[in-house]
Write a structure and sequence with these properties.
heterodimer; A: 472 residues; alpha+beta; Alpha-Beta Plaits; Gyrase A, domain 2; four-stranded antiparallel beta sheet; 52% helix; B: 306 residues; Multidrug efflux transporter AcrB transmembrane fold; 10 helices; 4 strands; elongated
Chain lengths: 472, 306
Amino acid sequence: MDRRIVKLILILVLVVLVVWVDIPRPEGSAGLTIGKFHRTMNPVLGLDLRGGMQVLLGAKDGVTPDKQALEDTAKILESRANGLGVSEVVFQVAGEKYILGEFPGLTNTADVIAAVKQTGLLEFIDAGTTYLEPGTNVSTDYVAPSAQTTSPEAASSTPVPTPAATESAAPTTTETKVYHTVMTGVDIKTVNVSTSQTGGFAVDFVLMDNGTVIFKDHTTANTGKYLAIVLDKAVISCPTISTAITDGSGQITGSFTSEQANNLAVTLRYGRLSVPVEVVESRIIGPTLGSDSLSKSLLAGLIGFIIVALFMILYYRLPGAVAVVAIAIYGAITFALFKLIPVTLTLSGIAGFLLSTGSALDANILIFERLKEELRNGRNLKQAIDLSWKRAWPSIRDSNIATIITSVILFWFGSQFGASIVKGFALTLALGVVVSLFTAVYVTRTFLSLTTDAVKPDQYQKLFGARRSENA
Amino acid sequence: MLNILGKRYWFFALSLVIIVSGIILLAVKPLPLSIDFKGGTILELQFTSKTLPSTEQVKSIFDKIGITDSQIQTSGDDTLILRSSELSESQRQTVISEVSALSDKEVVVLKSDTVGPSIGQGVAKRALLAVAIAAIAVVIYITFAFRGVQHAFRYGICAIIAMVHDVLIVIALTGFGSTFWGWQIDSLYLTALLTVIGFSVQDKIVVFDRIRENSGIYRKLDFETLANHSIVQTLQRSINTQLMTVEFLLLALALFGGVTLREFAVILLVGLLSGTYSSIFIAAPILVVWEKKEWKTWFKKTPQAA
């Protein structure tokens, strides 16, 4: 008796907690922060439910990038896309040669894909005596080797000075002057973030032998002039050459935050590693379709739940009502987990959730059918509840473990290949099944056992719906 | 008591008829793979004016840019689905703007997918691999979980045979769907199939569990009677679970879930129904056939209903 009360209290505490998590938060609320753990406490909706764009980028044919290069590429793409002013852009490595990019709320592919696909091109340009404001777009006489841009044929990595071609290729240029590219990021060997003498963050770099020579010659000849550092034709910083740099190392300073310095460092490394990518898949879901799908599946879920609840209560009476409460708790816990982990909710994720709701129901039905059987066999209620649970348990356990095994394998498959549909499905299914096991074992059993205390024996038939004496 | 197992060959025949007729439909018409699996572009355009341009008008736009394999389909009363081989970004923009020009009111791009040809085949192949690995893992698990009964291994194999049956039923349904309602096999279809597979295995184990339990209680009963008894005992549960998880939840999804989800919900409805059906009428009967080694008599005389 005591133990059941303790269990009940624990369940109630849990319910209060998850309901607190589940309550919709207004836009821009603080969310939950415990130490380093922070959640906005809003459900994360997938692109198919909120609308947006998804791009799968693949390494070009014949290129087998190593994992680090791919990770760096994803990072760079992400910071670049964020630089475009689009929020919540995510780029993730998917499998051995793919990067999956997601742009919530965005449907204009042309600009974004073009901007993002560019390889991070770092140039050191001779600015002569003019100081170039960071952010300025410039033209240079550097022509990208084809391996880094679109056509795979030519693979020369030496700058070819053909000013006219570059000018037409950079239509956003505000300056008409074409600057000379002294050197590109290809010649950089290592990159590190450090704190500069002035207290801010800086990026240190060490050049390869080739670059060291170029750099030495240039800085010796141009001491006192400006040497601008340009990323994808936009000026990052424009230092003066104070002394000739002969040892092949240098530092890029600017008013960087730690994060900016890191991004720049990654960009520089990326420019060197350079995984040429191309769009292999792009998907756009209009915002109308997304919100339409969301509201309709919510409505469908609600209607489905009401019908199920009615059926459970009509058919199984008291235990049915208990099950409905247990399923509601199951739903609340699962949704809270979705928010806390957080799990991105997609249509296929909802399908997985639906199936696990099915198993949660099934667990309850298995127990109640057993309960009826045991009651028909003449056991008293207390024995019947204990037995029904014990006998239904192996089937609940084994069937759910099989489902968990299946979903783990599907999840692995989904992550391997960037098949987010399969991954989302497997994740919500596995989570839901685990929670449903918990509610069947803990919640249904405790509630059932407690509620039956309050029931008089002559009400059994009415409340447990076991009056028909079929042969068992 | 209900004698379900006695009519087992009738159930086998029923499944066979459904599967074979669906497969014939698929053989006549090639497998309706969507761009998700063979590459291409799909555009879903909604016309707020509710007056749709004619198929010829839209097709001629595609023809102009040199795309001759376009397929135009209407969806609902205000939406056009345009399918074609892979369009470049500029071709895609051209199509959208020119189709929009055919309507006097705003045209909303609901969906626009472009998939390269190589990627889809990879997905299908790996999905198959994942399912195969999952099936082996499930057989191993069942063999372990049923180690207390004789021939535990058979339970796993029968569960997987019945699961394949459910997948075949869904594929047969696809044959009907593609012939009569223009269905296509896309990623959402793959999700539905995975759901069917997950549910199918889970359901088999529940029914097998009763055989496992009963075989400990009724040691002297012959296997067929035992299995039949077990099926009948779990029948009520099978029906109720099926009613709730499948019919109620999915019917709601099919009726209220919007166009995107309708095909998905219908596939699940049939697939999960088959999942329950095959636990009772396929998986358990095969166990019995195996136990009695009935194939020895298949070609000697007509199958006997015991």
